[in-house]
Amino acid sequence: MPAVQETIEQVKEIDVDKYKYGFETFIESDRAPKGLDESTVRFISAKKGEPEWMTEWRLQAFERWLTMKEPSWARVKYPKIDYQDLYYYSAPKSMSGPNSLDEVDPEILRTYEKLGIPLREQEILAGVRPAVEAADSDADSDDDSDAPAAEGTRQVAVDAVFDSVSVATTFKKELAKAGVIFMPISEAIREYPDLVRKYLGSVVPITDNFFATLNSAVFSDGSFVYVPKGVRCPMELSTYFRINERNTGQFERTLIIADEGSYVSYLEGCTAPMRDENQLHAAVVELIALDDAEIKYSTVQNWYPGDKEGKGGVYNFVTKRGDCRGKNSKISWTQVETGSAITWKYPSCILRGDNSEGEFYSIAISNGHQQIDSGTKMIHLGKNTKSRIISKGISAGLSNNTYRGLVSAHRKASGARNFTQCDSLLIGGKCGAHTVPYIESKNASAVFEHEATTSKISDDQMFYCLQRGMSEEEAVALIVNGFAREVIQKLPMEFMAETQRLIGISLEGSVG
Amino acid sequence: MMAGAERTRTRTRAEEALARNFAALASDDAVHEMRSQAFDAFMEKGLPHRRVEDWKYTDLRALMSDAPPPASPASPQAAEEALARADVFAGIDRARIVFVNGQFLPALSDLKGLEEDVEFASFGRFLAGGGALLVATDQADEAEAPVLALNGAFVTDGAVLRIREGAKLARPLEIVTVYAGAEPGLQTLRHQVSVGDGAEAVILQSYVGPDDVAYHTNAVTDVRIGKGAKVKWVKAQEEGNKAVHLGLDLPRVDADAVFDPFLFAAGSAVARAEIRLIFDGEGASAGIRGATIARGRQHLDTTLIVDHAVPECTSQEFFKAAIDDEAKGVFQGRINVWRDAQKTEGKMMSQALLLSESAEFDNKPELEIFADDVVCGHGATCGQIDEEMLFFMRSRGVPMEEAERLLVHAFLAEAIEEIADEDVIEALEARTRRWLSLASEVR
Predict the structure, then answer these.
(1) Chain B contact for A459 (CB, 8 A cutoff)
(2) CA angle, residues B80, B204, B353, in degrees to nearest 5
(3) Chain B, nearest residue to A408 by Cα
(4) DSSP for B178-214, written as a single string
(5) Each residue's pLDDT tens digit, B302-355
(6) Which of A371, A412, A440 to mutate to test the interface with B (most CBs of B within 10 A)?
(7) Which of A333, A408, A464, B194 is a plausible cystine mate for A347, CB 3.0–4.6 Å?
(8) Cα B441 to the chain's mean position, in Å?
(9) Could you tell me if A72 lies within 8 Å of chain B, comparing CB atoms?
(10) Which of A73, A428, A454 sits opposite B377 (nearest CB)?
(11) Chain B: residue nearest A447 by CA?
C-alpha cells in the first residue's frame, strides 16, 4: 500500500529533525591529554582537589582495570573501543567554580535552556504544566516560561553535569534547610569525606566489572545525595547529563544515601550532540537505603542513538545498583530507554534487609541500528523480601532489544516473593526481541513467577485505529503507549508527558 | 556478570583421565582420525564450566570428579541380569533393541512384528566398516558441544534405524541402554533414527544401571522425522545413583509432522538431557515435555533449544520438576524464531516444586525472536506446595504426609498425562508413585 501524502510528509519532517537534542555547544574546554594511564587518573584527581585517599582509591581501581577484559556476554556487537583514543576529562574553560549562575558561561546556560532544563529556580522543568493548562494542548511554550509557577506545580532541584563537571546545582539552600545534601560528588568528596568514604564503592566495589572499574578510576563528576534520618526530601532531585565535547568519555558517578526512615525521588536525564563517531559513557550509580527508607530512581535515557545507517551514537555501559541495606527499605527503578547506539545496563536491587522491597519498571525502545541489552537483578538475601519486575521492550527498524534479568533467592531468603513480566513488541520484520531471564531459587518458601510474551501489533488493533481516521504513525504510538502503560504510570509526573512524546518520536518512520 | 579472564589452566582430574583413556584407544585407521578430531575439539576447551553460558548451572569441571575408561563387555549372564532392571516400560508389549556396556546385544533384542517396517543395523557395524556414519551433525558442532565431541571420540555402538514411509508400527520400539558390572566404565552410544514420511511410531528409550557404581553414559541421537510423520519419543533416565549421564538428542522435524518428545529424569548423580530441535518444514508441531524428580544430592539438568527456522510451526514446551533434600534441578529452554519463521507459535512453561529447605532450582527460559508475526511466550514458576491445597485435603481427613505426596504426584502428572498414550502414562506415573512411596492404587 503506498503511503498517503500526509504520512510521507510527516516522515520527512522527522528525517531532518529526528533527534532534536543533537546540536553542539561551542565553548572552549580544558581537557586532560588523550589516552589513559596512571597520570590521567592523577590528573583528574588533582583537578578535583581530592584528598590522598581518593587518589589512592582511583589508582587501585585503575590497576585492577588493567587486568580485566571487556565483557562479551551481552547481546551487543560493536567495533573494539580504543581506550587510548579518548579524552577522559573535559571541562568548560570558564568553569573555575562559579558561585552563582551569573558566572556560568552563557553558552552553557543556553544549552540547558534549549534542552528544557531549568537552572534558574523560578523555572520549572519543560514538559511539566500546571494541570489547568494541560488541557489546552496548543499552549505556546513561550507563555509557560513567563508564567509564574502555578499552584500545584512541583519544584525540582537540578544538578547539571556538562561533560566532566557539574555546572550548576539548584535549590541547594532550600534543601539544606531540610538537611538534605545535594551536590556534585566532587564537592562532596571535599566537604563530606567521611560520608563519601563510608559509602562509595560499598554497593558497586571497584572490582565489580570492567566498566565499573574503569569508572572508579576516572569518574569525573556526578551527584551526591544524602537524606538524613526521617526526612522526606521536600522536592524531586534531578541530574541532567550532557556530553558535548568530541571524543570524550563521560564517566559519572552517583551516590545516593537514604538514611533511616527517609524518602527521596531522583530523576536522571541525558542527551548528547549528533556526531559520526561513537561516544563512550560508563556511569556507576550506587543507592543505599537504610532501615525503612525509600529511594525512587527514574531515568529517561535519550543519548544520541546514531543515524539511520547506524553511524555514531553513544555507547552506554552503565552499572546501577541499589542496596536495600536496612529492614523494610525499598528501592524502585524506573527507566525509559530510547537513546544510545548500545545500551548495556542492569539496574539491580540487593534485598539485604528483611522485608525490603525492590522494583524495576522499564520501557526500552530500539529503532534504527540500536542495540539494547538491559534488564535487572533482584537478589533476595533477607527474609520476606519482595520484588517486582515489569519490562516492556519495543523493537523496530533493524534493532535488537534484549531483556536480561536475574532473580535469585539465597538460602536464608525465606518467604521471598518475585513477580516478573516481560513483554516484547516487534514492529517490522527486520528487528529482534530477546528474553533471557535467570531464575535461581535456593529456598523452598521463595515463590517466583515469571511471564513473558512476544507479539506484534495486531492487524485488528491497527485496523480499528486507522478506521477511526488515525495515521499509521499515530496508531502505532497510541498502541505502544497502551502497551507500555504500566511502566509509564510509575514515572514521576515530570517525566510522564516527556515519555509519551518520546515514544511517539522514537517509533516514527518505523511502520510500513 | 563478569567476563572471566581465560588463563592457561591445569587440567582437572577428569580431563586428565579422559586424555589417558583416549590415548589408550590409539590406532591408525580412518575412524581413529575422526575420533582424534573430535577429541581435540573437546580438549581445546575442556569440560564446560559455569562461565560457559550453556553450562552455567551444570559446571562439569566441578561436578565430574573422574572419567572412567571405556566399559568392558559384560558376560551374557551379567547382561541378562542387568537387563531385568530395565523394567520401566515392562507393562507395555514392545520390541527391544538392547545395548549393554556400550555394545549391541542381538540375543537380548527383539524386533518381532516390525521386520516389514523397520530396518535396523548396529552403529558398531558401520564403525568397523570405516565409520562412514560418524559425521558431525549440522545441529551441533563438536567445538561448542562437549557432549557431542566426547561422543565422537569414544563412541562404540548405537542403533541405526529406518522406519519405512507410511509404516504404522505394530508395537512401540524401545532402545534400552544398560550398564552391568561393579566396575566404573564409560558407555558411549550414537543412535541415528530416521522416520519415513507419514509413518507413525512410539519410540521409547530407557537408561538403567546399578547403584553405587560411578559409571558414565554418553548418548547422542540424531533423529529425522519425515513429512507428516507422527512420533512419540519418550526417554526414561533411571541410571544408578552414582552415574553421570550426558544425553543429547538432535531431532529435525519436516513439514506437517508431529513430534512429541518426553524427558523423564529420575536417576544419576549428575545428568544432563539436552534436546536441540529444528523445524525443517512448514506446519510441523512439537510438544516437548518432561518431568524431573530429584532427591539426595542429585543434580539433574534439562536443556532445550527449539529452532523455528520455517514459518507456521508450533512448539509447546512444558516441564515439571519436584526437587527434594539437597538436590538441584536445572531447566534451560530457548525458543529461537528466525527471520522467516512467521506465524510461529511457541509456548514454554517450566514449573518447579521445592520439597525441602535445601533444594535448589535454576530456571532460564529464553526467547530469541527475529520475526514479527509470531505469538510466543514463556512462563516459569518456582515454589513450594500450596498451603491452601494442603489445608483443603487435610480438612477432608487426608493425613499431612499423604496429602503432600498426592499433591506432588498430581503436579508431575499434569506433564506426564500430556503424553496421550495410556500405557506410557501408566508406566511413568507408577515411577513417580514409587518415588513418593504412594500406594499403587492412587491415580
Answers:
(1) no
(2) 105
(3) B362
(4) E--SSS--EEEEEEEEEE-TT-EEEEEEEEE--TT--
(5) 999 999 999 999 999 999 999 999 999 999 999 999 988 999 999 999 999 999
(6) A440
(7) A333
(8) 29
(9) yes
(10) A454
(11) B383
User: Would you call A318 an interface residue with chain B, using a CB distance cutoff of 8 Å?
Assistant: no
Annotated domain spans of chain B: 13-281, 312-384, 386-443
Q: Phi-psi bin for B416: left (phi > 0), alpha (psi -120 to 50), beta?
A: alpha
User: What DSSP element (H or E) covers A509?
Assistant: none
Taking the C-alpha atoms of residue B3 and residue B51, their distance in angstroms, rounded to an integer, is 8
Q: How far apart are CA A218 and CA A214, in angstroms?
A: 6
Which of A42, A143, A132, A125 has the alpha carbon at shortest distance from A88? A42
Partners of residue A442 in chain B, C-beta under 8 Å = 358, 360
pLDDT digits (tens, 9 = 90+) for A118-129: 666 555 544 443
| Inter-chain residue contact A208 with B370, CB threshold 8 Å | no
B383 and A432 within 8 Å at the Cβ level: the answer is no
Q: Are strands A253-258 and B103-104 parallel, antiparallel or unpaired?
A: unpaired
Q: Are A290 and A195 in contact (CB under 8 A)?
A: no
Rounded CA-CA distance A491/A494 in Å is: 8
- Interface membership of A381 toward B (CB under 8 Å): no
What residues of chain B lie within 8 A of the CB of A448, using their CB?
363, 380-383
Within 8 A by CB and 6+ apart from B161, the residues are: B97, B118, B119, B120, B173, B191, B192, B193, B194
Query: In terms of CA atoms, which chain A residue is nearest residue B359?
Result: A442
Which of A69, A346, A426 comes nearest B372 by C-beta?
A426
Record: contact B1-A71, CB cut-off 8 A: yes
In the chain, the amino acid numbered A241 is F
Instruction: Give the global pTM.
Output: 0.84
State whether the Cα torsion B87-B89-B95-B101 is positive or negative: negative
Locus of grid cell 529503532: A367
Instruction: State how far the Cα of A373 lies from the Cα of A401, in Å rounded to an integer.
Output: 6
Alpha-carbon gap: A310 to the closest alpha carbon of chain B (Å):
19
Count of CA atoms in the C-beta half-sphere (13 A) of B170? 11
Residue B341: HSE in the Cβ half-sphere, 13 Å Cα cutoff: 28
C-alpha closest to that of A324 among A361, A356, A284, A347? A356
Contact at 8 Å (CB) between B145 and B163? no
Question: A443 at the B interface (CB within 8 A)?
Answer: yes
Give B193-234 pLDDT, tens digit per residue: 999 999 999 999 999 999 999 999 999 999 999 999 999 999
Q: Yes or no: say if B95 and B174 are a contact pair by the CB < 8 Å rule.
A: yes
Flag if A426 and B375 touch (Cβ within 8 Å). Answer: no
With an 8 Å Cβ cutoff, are A411 and B361 in contact?
no
Residue A449 in contact with partner chain B when CB distance is under 8 A: yes
The Cα B385–Cα B407 span in angstroms is 7
C-alpha cell at B265: 529424569
What pLDDT, on the 0 to 100 scale, is given for residue A167?
A: 67
